[in-house]
């Protein structure tokens, strides 16, 4: 799918679908003192997320990322190939 020339990682509609999915997940993360921020989408259709608050230091954050967040995003936005945690963007 990442080789499909019609896929545009900068497409606002794509980003909106990702954000809507994250909005559905955030209350659960916030209940444990964490959250996520969409950093971007690469040309290979990889979602880059910044883990915030408790999610940034939680030893279970990678399990949450893979089993929870990534699965939810890929269900809602099948064009996405993977979800990765990244460091905050430089200001």
TrEMBL record:
<protein>
    <recommendedName>
        <fullName>NIF system FeS cluster assembly NifU C-terminal domain-containing protein</fullName>
    </recommendedName>
</protein>
<dbReference type="GO" id="GO:0016226">
    <property type="term" value="P:iron-sulfur cluster assembly"/>
</dbReference>
<dbReference type="Pfam" id="PF01106">
    <property type="entry name" value="NifU"/>
</dbReference>
<dbReference type="InterPro" id="IPR034904">
    <property type="entry name" value="FSCA_dom_sf"/>
</dbReference>
<dbReference type="InterPro" id="IPR001075">
    <property type="entry name" value="NIF_FeS_clus_asmbl_NifU_C"/>
</dbReference>
<dbReference type="GO" id="GO:0051536">
    <property type="term" value="F:iron-sulfur cluster binding"/>
</dbReference>
<dbReference type="GO" id="GO:0005506">
    <property type="term" value="F:iron ion binding"/>
</dbReference>
<feature type="domain" description="NIF system FeS cluster assembly NifU C-terminal">
    <location>
        <begin position="18"/>
        <end position="84"/>
    </location>
</feature>
<comment type="similarity">
    <text>Belongs to the NifU family.</text>
</comment>
């Amino acid at each position: 799918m990442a080789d499909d020339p019609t896929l545009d990682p900068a497409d606002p509609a794509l980003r909106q679908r990702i954000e809507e999915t994250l909005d559905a997940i955030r209350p659960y993360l916030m209940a444990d003192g964490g959250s996520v921020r969409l950093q971007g989408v690469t040309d290979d259709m990889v979602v880059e997320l910044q883990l915030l608050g408790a999610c940034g230091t939680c030893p279970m954050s990678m399990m949450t990322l893979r089993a929870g967040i990534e699965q939810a995003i890929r269900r809602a936005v099948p064009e996405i190939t993977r979800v990765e945690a990244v460091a905050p963007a430089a200001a």
